[in-house]
Design goal:
The complex is a heterodimer of chains A (287) and B (489). Chain A is of the alpha/beta class and 287 residues long. In chain A, 43% of the residues lie in helices and 19% in strands. Chain A has a single domain, classed as Aldehyde Dehydrogenase, Chain A, domain 1. In chain A, the strands form three sheets. A five-stranded parallel sheet of chain A has the order 7-6-5-8-9, sandwiched between helices. Chain A is globular. Chain B folds into two domains: 260 residues, Aldehyde Dehydrogenase, Chain A, domain 1 (3-Layer(aba) Sandwich); 180 residues, Aldehyde Dehydrogenase, Chain A, domain 2 (3-Layer(aba) Sandwich). Chain B is globular. Classes of the chains: A alpha/beta (287), B alpha/beta (489).
Chain lengths: 287, 489
């Protein structure tokens, strides 16, 4: 009997709703802990990042003007798609070193987190909006708007729920994002891009790169058309570096250190608020 | 194209008689010391700098300059007060102190208004009717929050940060002090405040009130000096939070300096606001709004409506009316109650404004200035507007911080939105139209923190203020204004 050979997957980047290879043609070898599988991951470049920012910027006005209800449904849809493809994520998480139980837990929590933020997408506005009682004849109200294009450095691990936990609040708030996936465990990030791709998320709203954090951190933090940067990690020099570079265009630097991403405590609407701006409008009352 | 100019004859035999506000009941100490730990003390090196009245260049007082040692002294007083007294106090009692400050300011409002005008050059009408009333209102508003913080942030507890270092500008000296101090105290923090070098006097008067109010020593410390003093404050390792209002350049420097230190910060930086006039606006009101938008406080306003966009169909009418209205502005003695436009705050700022005006001319702009006569002594600048400028002109892109308006025209809504957003800033904006739907569309599309629809330059303690993009981060005023001074746990 002939043995059937597997069809191996090529892991690429996710930019502007497409799966291109890195423009640089570079790769890095990823090997699973048991040395059973070797994958050539794209080693994303500065140019890839810049292209991703262009995509994110052009997707921004469409995404922010969708109704909150629609954004909410799309986030819910991402959860649905992840649920439907749990087998694939089980395999990958286990290949990346998780036990079966750990993998199952991470997938469950990732789905639940998506549903959690899907629910917030049409509610945080009410929690964070107000009518302000000014002492003059004006109607004055404040409400949150997305800050714009966000760059994000995902936690190294857990790689799936880490990525989901930072991307979900950013896009629930109407922002678009370019995220650098875990360098140590990059497989499921690109597979997650396939989930996004089949969830009615418009191209460019979420862009996912793989590559070296040490190389890309500079570009993620210094790009002049990025409005905020989310950094996950606890390397002091990196945090300082990111915060210094953020000064170039007054980017909002948001730093998450030592988070237990598998804990429900790391989900709340204030994480959405971190990449929002409060706008206040005045209008005279009278005839 | 033939232009239709509505030119009204504004020449009359009538003129305003001088109506100067009396200063004889005002006491300005010849020597102003640092306010640290509840006492007025000289600086370590006993170094003083002069503060002058920009309207006549006369010296008002010698002000103690704080160096690193003095900054440390102030910070450690604030730390002690935080640890031992302020953070432990029943919040309702904290609130009562803040209420008391608000009341004392109301009682001495006239004195504050006059000193604000003498030290900074702004018209007495503005310091009397806008700055000082808003100062007491701000303290009054935040006083009430002190014991209600558990209702401000659903699902979270608000904890104070510790010691806040606060650096404020010279355009609204006492008002900015109130914006900084009131929310910080209400949330249980203690502060070290550094007023601007050219306008230290009203903040030091506030120190007197703080003493009078029996605020525990060290809860509020006020020190003076230039950028070096500010830098020492930002760099001080025992500061938990920096609150800064000023230029975008300095704001960026602060971000760099505190990077990696874990200090929190809020920044209220520059702006280049678009003021948009649609053809369906109430034109006369809009003209008033343009005037208020750019000439309020000599244009020394970070949210000033310095880029005017007028829809083409009404551009000639608007610009002509605008010029007529500019002619009627009274420029002169800030202490005169009829004065509309006072003195430019400093020689340095006047030079900067003049540099931009020259630049506008060199770049091909057409200038119009009102024909007012400027006083000989002091720092003055006539209300100025430029036409024939475009998006790439530097006077359209850069913050001038003076009474200089750049006028452009547009045809469509989409065009003006794109033009208005073509700036690294995002502090404020104005929209003038009688169509509600248009106002909502445009005010939503402008990427800025404060949008004035059919009005401009309005402020209130209950109303959050702050910018998008390079205009800074964080909000001051309203419930949002508590956020920068708390950790949510």
């Amino acid at each position: 009997m002939n043995k059937r050979e597997d069809v191996k997957k090529t892991y690429k980047l996710y930019i502007g709703g497409k799966f291109p290879r890195t423009e640089s043609g570079r790769y890095f070898k990823w090997t699973d802990p048991k040395n059973s599988t070797v994958v050539n991951m794209c080693r994303g470049s500065r140019k890839d990042f810049r292209n991703a920012v262009v995509s994110a910027r052009s997707a921004f006005s469409g995404w922010r003007s969708k109704t909150a209800y629609n954004r909410s449904q799309i986030l819910y849809r991402i959860g649905e798609m992840l649920e439907g493809r749990r087998g694939q994520f089980m395999d990958e998480l286990i290949l990346q070193g998780a036990s079966k139980k750990e993998a199952e837990n991470e997938i469950n929590q990732s789905i639940d987190r998506l549903i959690y933020y899907a629910g917030w997408a049409d509610k945080y506005q009410q929690v964070f909006s107000r009518v302000n009682p000014v002492a003059s004849s004006y109607f004055n109200f404040s409400y949150p708007e997305p800050t714009g294009v966000v760059s994000a450095i995902a936690p190294d691990e857990p790689s799936l729920i880490g990525l989901v936990s930072i991307v979900a609040p950013i896009i629930a708030g109407g922002n678009t994002v370019v995220v650098l996936a875990s360098e140590a465990k990059p497989l499921c990030s690109i597979t997650f891009a396939e989930v996004l791709h089949t969830s009615d998320v418009p191209g460019g709203v979420v862009n996912i790169l793989t590559g070296y954090r040490s190389e890309l951190l500079e570009h993620f933090s210094s790009h002049m058309d990025v409005n905020a940067i989310v950094y996950c990690g606890n390397v002091k020099e990196e945090i300082k570096f990111v915060q210094e570079n953020a000064a170039l265009n007054v980017k909002r630097p948001i730093v998450y250190t030592d988070e237990n991403w598998l804990d429900k405590k790391v989900q709340d609407p204030y994480r959405i608020l971190n990449t929002l701006e409060i706008k206040t409008t005045w209008h005279p009352v009278g005839i | 194209m033939e232009t239709t100019t509505i030119k009204s004859d504004l020449k009359t035999d009538w003129s305003y008689s001088p109506a100067p506000e009396s200063t004889d009941h005002i006491r300005i100490n010849q020597q102003v010391d640092l306010f640290i730990n509840g006492e007025f003390i000289p600086s370590e090196k006993e170094k003083y700098f002069e503060t002058i009245n920009p309207a006549n260049e006369k010296k008002l007082a010698d002000v103690a300059e704080a160096d690193k040692t003095d900054v440390s002294k102030a910070v450690s007083a604030a730390r002690k007060a935080y640890e031992n007294v302020w953070s432990k106090m029943d919040p309702a009692e904290r609130g009562k102190y803040i209420y008391r400050i608000a009341r004392l300011i109301q009682e001495r409002a006239r004195e504050f208004a006059i000193i604000e005008t003498m030290d900074g050059g702004k018209p007495i009408r503005e310091s009397r009717d806008i700055d000082i009333p808003l100062v007491s209102a701000h303290f009054f508003y935040y006083a009430g929050w002190a014991d209600k913080l558990e209702y401000a942030f659903p699902g979270k507890q608000a904890k104070p940060l510790g010691v806040a270092g606060q650096i404020i500008p010279w355009n609204f000296p006492l008002l900015m002090a109130a914006w900084k101090i009131a929310p910080a105290l209400a949330t249980g923090n203690t502060v070290v405040l550094k007023p601007a070098e050219t306008t230290p006097l009203t903040a030091m008067k506030l120190a007197e009130i703080i003493q009078e109010a029996d605020l525990p020593p060290g809860v509020v410390n006020i020190i003076n000096g230039n950028g070096k003093t500010g830098r020492a404050l930002v760099e001080h390792p025992d500061i938990d939070k920096i609150a800064f209002t000023g230029s975008t350049d300095v704001g960026k420097l602060i971000m760099k300096t505190v990077a990696g230190t874990g200090k929190k910060y809020t920044l209220e930086l520059g702006g280049k606001a678009a003021n948009i006039i649609f053809e369906d606006a109430a034109i006369d009101q809009a003209v008033e709004g343009i005037i208020n938008g750019i000439f309020f406080n000599q244009g020394h306003v970070c949210c000033a409506g310095s880029r005017l966009f007028v829809q083409e169909s009404v551009a000639d009418t608007v610009i002509s009316k605008l010029k007529d209205r500019m002619e009627t502005l009274i420029v002169g003695d800030p202490l005169d109650k009829n004065t509309d436009i006072g003195a430019i705050n400093s020689k340095m700022q006047l030079d900067k404004i003049k540099m931009y005006v020259d630049m506008g001319l060199n770049e091909g702009g057409t200038i119009y200035q009102s024909s007012c006569k400027l006083p000989e002594k002091g720092y003055w600048h006539a209300p100025t507007l430029f036409t024939d400028v475009s998006q790439s002109h530097r006077i359209v892109q850069e913050e001038i911080f003076g009474p200089v308006l750049a006028v452009q025209t547009f045809r469509t809504v989409d065009e003006v939105i794109t033009k208005a957003n073509n700036t690294p800033y995002g502090l404020s904006g104005g929209v003038w139209s009688d169509k509600g739907a248009k106002i909502f569309k445009v005010s939503k599309a402008i990427r800025a923190g404060v949008l004035w629809a059919n009005t401009f330059n309005k402020f209130d303690p209950a109303s959050p203020f702050g910018g998008y993009k390079e205009s800074g981060m964080g909000r001051e005023g309203g419930l949002e204004g508590l956020m920068p001074y708390v950790n949510l746990v």
